Amino acid sequence: xxxxxxxxxxxxxxxxxxxxxxxxxxxxxxxxxxxxxxxxxxxxxxxxxxxxxxxxxxxxxxxxxxxxxxxxxxxxxxxxxxxxxxxxxxxxxxxxxxxxxxxxxxxxxxxxxxxxxxxxxxxxxxxxxxxxxxxxxxxxxxxxxxxxxxxxxxxxxxxxxxxxxxxxxxxxxxxxxxxxxxxxxxxxxxxxxxxxxxxxxxxxxxxxxxxxxxxxxxxxxxxxxxxxxxxxxxxxxxxxxxxxxxxxxxxxxxxxxxxxxxxxxxxxxxxxxxxxxxxxxxxxxxxxxxxxxxxxxxxxxxxxxxxxxxxxxxxxxxxxxxxxxxxxxxxxxxxxxxxxxxxxxxxxxxxxxxxxxxxxxxxxxxxxxxxxxxxxxxxxxxxxxxxxxxxxxxxxxxxxxxxxxxxxxxxxxxxxxxxxxxxxxxxxxxxxxxxxxxxxxxxxxxxxxxxxxxxxxxxxxxxxxxxxxxxxxxxxxxxxxxxxxxxxxxxxxxxxxxxxxxxxxxxxxxxxxxxxxxxxxxxxxxxxxxxxxxxxxxxxxxxxxxxxxxxxxxxxxxxxxxxxxxxxxxxxxxxxxxxxxxxxxxxxxxxxxxxxxxxxxxxxxxxxxxxxxxxxxxxxxxxxxxxxxxxxxxxxxxxxxxxxxxxxxxxxxxxxxxxxxxxxxxxxxxxxxxxxxxxxxxxxxxxxxxxxxxxxxxxxxxxxxxxxxxxxxxxxxxxxxxxxxxxxxxxxxxxxxxxxxxxxxxxxxxxxxxxxxxxxxxxxxxxxxxxxxxxxxxxxxxxxxxxxxxxxxxxxxxxxxxxxxxxxxxxxxxxxxxxxxxxxxxxxxxxxxxxxxxxxxxxxxxxxxxxxxxxxxxxxxxxxxxxxxxxxxxxxxxxxxxxxxxxxxxxxxxxxxxxxxxxxxxxxxxxxxxxxxxxxxxxxxxxxxxxxxxxxxxxxxxxxxxxxxxxxxxxxxxxxxxxxxxxxxxx
Length: 971
Description:
Helices cover 15% and strands 41% of the residues. The protein is built from 12 helices and 76 strands. The protein starts with a helix and ends with a helix.
């Protein structure tokens, strides 16, 4: 009995310890969340004001919405006192103001957060709306009884026995303009009347007895209210006047101010106060691109009308509205085709027996079989002045060759007839340029834009400087031409452009480039510029401005080693040794730097000193920057340290990890560090000072730990931490503001079944980076920090049996020799087509050179390796070589040779990479929740306890998982 009593007392003390006021306390202006046993409670900094019992929360200005077991409640944001328990299905606080809308089942009530009182009345619906700048938002509570509140809780419209609706009306004088600004009104519909309220006083502006509003939610903008009275529909203006009496079976709101009227004998049209057509027709409609034009259909006749001109023209049903006021159709009596301009008259007589097209142009056909094209692209339609026998699209429907007997002409959809049909003329589409090339009988060659239809020169001229032009010659490339002599001063290049900052002329050709001054002096003789792209859509050569000078990468002919080149005073100077394979430009505050990768993968860092770029660091293995952080975090073989913007080392910790923490613009940068010996974390100031000892299991920005937290004032604790037994907050200087118990009991750690169909993270990682899980027997590496391009070519080198340091040219030559890609002396990079060819070779062991480009792409699509690209956000961050890595390893794993080599990697608890750990965390369950969804990670001791069982099970099933994935991926 005594032992039992002591145990109960210990348990009570353990529970009480979670409620003990923190040793170091700071008063918070609003209650802040804390975490105990992965449940959320709230503290004011001096004491715990709630138990840790909530699963999630959201802040507003006056209350905290908390979630517990799927139900929601409210706490006072300053005291943490319960306003309403967590018994509601949903809670919304519109505009973060004084009214909370609460829902349980199908019923809504509201709580005034000032008085903390719950409304007695229950409503069937509750919605917030923008009404006007004076009342944003307003809250409509509806059901058998409805009322309107403003954001402060003030009653704008007291309860009415009916429905309140928010309607938008545009001024009638804008005549249905869909871009016009609309004004919102409140309309009440009761059993007795429809009432519209004044927006200022919220008193009735008018009431219509016996009328009910017909909502226009999501419909076209209109100036009128649609109402039902006596079972019939009508239209009412904002003053309560009927503009159409309630006498129609139905009224439909259309764009541009049109209304379709439905009567007992047919349909009609009304617009802008004018009854255009009585409801007596089988069909009515209007031209969306020309709202002046409408039509009515009766039996087999369609009549087109112009409102402005008051004209009308009848044709057989089935006529085609073309554009403007042109209509192609048949004469009701003769059935012959012609074109009428509704607001003018007949423009092409109705004497043609048939028509042809689209998808190509619309054609009128004469009785002798000759054809003519009806003009498009806003060209006036007139009686035809040329006829022909047939036409053929050239590349697209923009340009077409027309044939009249043995004569051939050229027609442009945009420009009309470009060349009258003539004998002995040859017309062809040039796919390389997208132009149509015409060889005249006298041998003269003409060129036309394949889309524009405008004449184009064989030489496309673009200015490079005041003295130079770039002249493109089809099939040859671009050449630099002296403007004063109109003579070329260079060879042909793939690409010519003027660098924006330096005004120097970059002439790219293959994997290198030449550099010219604006007056045409060649600067690159023994040394060429190396291709160096800052991002995928950047120019092929990056030129950094450093003070008054410029820097780029240079390379000697016949080598693949690069060096930094200084460009100043019209001279090129080698700034260092030729030792690099790739480089990246970085910024630290206002200073520029560059990180250059050597063949062995180590990094040198160059920093700005005045107008020079100077090597300051060597043999780094990684680096980290942040847009709001003016320091550089550098990794060497000894660990991580912080360096200043001039690359002076300002820490000597040799840390296991450094990571800048995001902060608001007003706060200086802070870095979280991981101690190499203990694995624990602490904080460093931006100047390298140690703000805290390494005593924390985790440190994160508070907003990352609690997504429901928002920075509403400067007193918000910036960082949350966890130790093995405590949760707390740190301020910007590393001072502990608050602590409480983190874990009061051991978490229950299990894992999900190890089956491929439920192991989504395994499939994803195998697609994105199989090297994390599979050993292919060669030292392949994955795209990560540094150059994904250089790693890609290093992997290809290994695949074809070359050393990892082999250059692009050697890799291309080896692949070409195997027949894996087609020979191309000018190839500077792998293209999508090259990757499809390589994949085909890996899959079949055969060359794809017998396939057309279309056939190869179709094979790749069936294979499932064609990248899905699209959207601006994708292209802004696209990493082409990451995609190529994924293609390469996917095919390597699917190939027979790859399957023989591929073996599962052994995953060990203390040696997991970040990617492997992330995979494991998707399978571990902590108190029933995925480990990767925990706001703070498990303490290391608990993690080690929980993960070992999973890894043991994984190693037993790893071979089976790999085999299942290979089978799923297919051959």
